[in-house]
Amino acid sequence: MDLGLNGKTVIITGAASGIGRACAIRFAQEGAVVAASDIDDDKLRDVVDEICAAGGRAFSGHADVTSADQMQRLVDMVVTDCGRLDILFNVAGGAQPLPTHTMSIADYHRVIALNLHSVFFGVRAALPAMLQQGRGTILSTTSGAGLNAVTGLAAYGAAKAGVISLMKSVAVEYGRAGIRANTISPGPMDTPGLRAWLDTYPDGAARYGRQVPSGRLGTAQDIASVAVFLASEAAAFLNGAVIPVDGAIHARLATPGLDDF
Ligand SMILES: NC(=O)c1ccc[n+]([C@@H]2O[C@H](COP(=O)([O-])OP(=O)(O)OC[C@H]3O[C@@H](n4cnc5c(N)ncnc54)[C@H](O)[C@@H]3O)[C@@H](O)[C@H]2O)c1
């Protein structure tokens, strides 16, 4: 199915690893021109090289998402070089699991900056270009921890809940201007980011996978498939939504083992 993304310009943050990496590759496979952004320049180069070697169009744009100035420079570079910005996908983020009462103020600020300020900085930088074009799509990444509570993820969850609210505000405020804003809520996706946490538990990946009603951890490609649809005209009337891509783990309440059949 042709999603009509050929030639569209997309910025993807966190593109050097996991979900961002898979999305950069998938958008390029759909014909988009991918501005792959991250702070990990070595891994970013690998992704861009992989896309270009496969015949896709991509270039790297180093930007720390916690810096409003760097996000503005990234958007300005893309608009100058490509003439437009069609899609912004805010993927960069990460958790630092800690009991709430042990979290330092500095850690709290770091988590909020990485997961919430980052999205505002990206949105703020991208909107003027999209308004001028009269169209644009913004996707952001929340988490199950932004929908419901996860022990040890209070600050991360608060930031990710803020992302949902921020994206709904953008959808409502700019819908008439041709701009859509939607949020993807990944379940447990088997990425380097999740592995770093799961591997602190014995047999962590397998045990977590068994808790997912669909019977497995997700893959970064599971998110990429949904992201290209959300960014496409096939989703033209989908705006202000939160889409769980989670094998139903967010849909589930705990039970005394009755679901083990
Ligand atoms: N993997 C999951 O199970 C899962 C679940 C829910 C939500 N998420 C969210 O999905 C997103 C991607 O997760 P992932 O598992 O692919 O992560 P990952 O750790 O594999 O990759 C994250 C990428 O973000 C980059 N990054 C970190 N700090 C940055 C900064 N300040 N500026 C720019 N780039 C920065 C890293 O270098 C890395 O390349 C995150 O927002 C995460 O919170 C992931």
Describe this structure as you would to a colleague.
The chain has 261 residues and is of the alpha/beta class. α1 links the parallel β1 (9-13) and β2. The protein has helices at residues 18-29, 41-53, 68-82, 105-133, 144-147, 154-174, 192-198, 204-211, 220-231, and strands at residues 9-13, 33-38, 57-62, 87-90, 136-141, 179-186, 242-245. It has one domain: Rossmann fold (3-Layer(aba) Sandwich), CATH 3.40.50. A 7-stranded parallel β-sheet has the order 3-2-1-4-5-6-7, with helices on both faces. α1 (18-29) packs across α9 and α3 runs parallel beside α4. The chain is built from 9 helices and 7 strands, in the order βαβαβαβαβααβαααβ. Bound molecules: nicotinamide-adenine-dinucleotide (NAD). Nicotinamide-adenine-dinucleotide is lined by residues 13-14, 16-20, 38-40, 64-66, 91-94, 114, 141, 143, 186, 188-189, 191-194.
Strand count, sense and barrel status of the largest sheet are:
7 strands, parallel
Structural class: alpha/beta
Query: Quick check: average pLDDT?
Result: 97
CATH topology: Rossmann fold
For the record, the count of structural domains works out to: 1
- The CATH architecture can be given as 3-Layer(aba) Sandwich
CATH class: Alpha Beta
Low-confidence stretches: none
Number of helices: 9
Bin the strand percentage: 5-15%
Radius of gyration in whole Å, from Cα? 18 Å
Number of strands: 7
What small molecules are bound in this structure? nicotinamide-adenine-dinucleotide
Residue share in helix: 40-55%
Q: How far apart are the termini?
A: 37 Å
Question: What is the H level of CATH, i.e. the homologous superfamily?
Answer: NAD(P)-binding Rossmann-like Domain
Order of helices and strands: EHEHEHEHEHHEHHHE
Principal-axes shape call: globular
Largest sheet, spatial ordering of strands:
3-2-1-4-5-6-7
